[in-house]
Structure prediction request, 163 residues.
Amino acid sequence: MELASQTATAERYAREWLEQQTVAKIIEVDDEKADARKRRFSLPAAYVEVLVDQDSLNYLAPLARLVDPLPVVRDHVYHPDFGGSFSLKSILPALVPALGYDDLEIAEGETASRVLMQLVADDPTLLPAERATKREALLRYCERDTLAMVRVLSRLRELAQRT
Prediction:
């Protein structure tokens, strides 16, 4: 697999990451019927400006270097609804009230980490159907977490433009 070899990543992890990005609708699989090891992926045209066009004001790739938005939020944004915490789960309801995790089977990071470890360790106690269900729930959580971060960053940009 090309991505795995270019990034020195285990093929399985690269493939699962690509599949997760597809489920999250960040990339598209070119041929869903192709063998998983031979699938090719592409970026939807609508995302090119945001992720590839370096001359666009909407170009977000530099934000990928932002490892943790905590210092930005902690030092420049406060809302009483944060409750003294600056975690994503604490700031999201105040900054992006329409988005949350309550509708998900996996709704918090500790559970997501535990499920991920079960899946990665190929836990023999998991039946195939349970494994598939947990994988889908984890994908939904990761999708929501990614969306939450994008929406929080967008909201922070809005707030910064007001000042």
